[in-house]
Amino acid sequence: MDEAAPFQRAFTVGEANALVPALEGVFGDLDEHQRALAAHLDRIQILDVLWGRDLSKPGNPDRKEFLAERTAVRDTLHRIDALVSARLMPLGVRVPPGGLEHGLVDFPSTLDGRWVFLCWKRGENRIRSWHELDGGFAGRQPLTPGVSARMGGPVPADGEFADLDPGDDESGDGERGEGGNGTTRGTA
To answer: What is the pTM of this model?
Structure first.
């Protein structure tokens, strides 16, 4: 792979779909940590409302609880970070800003020789959308059979558009010289 390429690999739709059950599991585990985090933050907020600036003063009777909750917040954030580092990042996916809170994951892919993202939202049983690198969730477009068949092809060299194979169908109807389903596309 070219060192200037922004991603390590290009996912096909089939490869991305195969990871959806694992993603659901990771987000289920993240839910537990996020509920714990919310509970700790709620308790800190209650203590703050009760005591204001006096909360952290050494003589405050709730200071010990405040410090324990603050430590629990830090520890929970570390557990979330460890979970993401151990179980999401090794998959080669991208979690966009707000992705953990909203269950969004992007899979680097290619479409007609340029980098794009296949986009998954928690609760979807398969990849249904894609967007340009700068499109974000608002730029999601439906993943039609014709587009799906053109995903995950050769990785673009130096960010340039690759020439389409002579057998490629540019009409978007999904009929291709390679069988039409995109399953024979290679990854980098």
So the answer is: 0.72
